[in-house]
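Input.
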Amino acid sequence: MGVLKKILLAIGLPVVLFAGWFLLSDSSESFYAPPLRDILAAFGETWTADRIGTDVVPSLLRLAAGYALAAVLGVTMGLAIGMNRRLRATVEPVLEFFRAIPPPVLVPVIMLFAGIGDGMKVIVIVFGCVWPILLNTVEGVRAVDSVVLDTARAYGVTGPARITRVILPSASPQIAAGLRQALSIAIILMVISEMFAASNGLGFTIVQFQRSFAIPEMWSGIILLGLLGFVLSLLFRLAERRALRWYEGLRAAQRTR
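Output.
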């Protein structure tokens, strides 16, 4: 019953919103805001297996590559900076400077150096996603209990074992928070990067529909993008819950005290 209740709570609001959209737009005669029934009809006609293979799959591959690279870079640099106080004091102003630059602004600059291929799009995703992962990793490493570190040192847990067995597990909830933030940023940047000098992808296709005034098809692409974001968020939540099962159990035990 608990699982069923969670499922109903998760899908209840989206169902209500779609039902309201369907009813309120049913009599719409606006060219730019067609009825939802027309959008859903265009959805089935537009997003066939062929189009998914030519537009959705390339977008997801770029998203996966950029997100994975950002995760590796963010966690690696975050560990190094978080464990070294002097290094952190040196690079912190530079990190804050680059973090404040919106990634879409750098798309034309990145195009000059990386061209207009998939590499450019992956770099844009990496540049936008690395900051929340890096900064959350730094904060997670800094928050590791000094008693735990002293105990590990006393038992001879040093070097790589200290990182993998003590620091990373202790910082993992904070790292997961950064990865969760980066996922939504990655989806946004995936679309934005595909709006510049692209020949396929979700962002490219949605813009092409808009330019050719295929408005129901454009709305169907936006709905598909939202569905992909929802599915990716759900998958991440399941993976996070499985990886941090010990942390969820600890929080549940603390709530019952």
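The chain has a mean pLDDT of 87.
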